[in-house]
Amino acid sequence: MRATRPSLVLSLLASISTVTTATSPAFVLPSSSLQSKTCTNQRSTPLYEQNKETNVEIPSFITNKVLQQVYPAMLQHQSLYGNVNIPLGTSEGKKCKTLRRLYAENKLSEEEVELLSGLDFRWSSLEDIYEEADFDELLGRLIE
């Protein structure tokens, strides 16, 4: 009886897939498309327009490649939301995180740091602030 169960299961699966394909072809994907699908949390299109499309002039003193790439998106984010702190869930947000790391490693020029500080760029992400915050001190400020 055990030998017939796998064959019974296989025949049931074959009949189900035949019924499924005949009645609802929209739910069946070809095997080639299943192999090409990957699960990622990345956007397929950028959240912000690229440099060429925004016509943003990047100041000549910006020599850091990451800042050159993210600067137009920061300005666009500022015009939409009132700040240049792009959320980390986007590719531009990850570039902002890289800028924070470069700042900590003193790899940004003084002019670049002044520019970002003038735009009120947060040098610590909210995740860093959460880890570094002293709860008792913050509670004391709140109570005052």
N-C termini distance: 77 Å
Task: Give the amount of beta strand, in percent.
Answer: under 5%
Helical content (DSSP H or I, runs of 4+): 55-70%
Structural domain tally: 2
Signal peptide: 1-22
Keywords: Signal
List the helices and strands and how they pair.
Layout: H1 4-23, H2 31-36, H3 51-54, H4 65-81, H5 91-104, H6 110-118, H7 126-132, H8 135-143
Keywords: Signal
Signal peptide: 1-22
Summarize the structure.
By secondary structure, the protein is mostly helical. The chain has helices at 4-23, 31-36, 51-54, 65-81, 91-104, 110-118, 126-132, 135-143.
What would you note in describing this structure?
There is one protein chain. With 144 residues, the chain is mainly alpha-helical. The chain folds into 2 domains: 33 residues, no CATH class; 82 residues, no CATH class. It is built from 8 helices and no strands. Helix 4 crosses helix 5. It is globular, with a radius of gyration of 26 Å. The chain starts with a helix and ends with a helix. About 25% of the residues have low confidence.
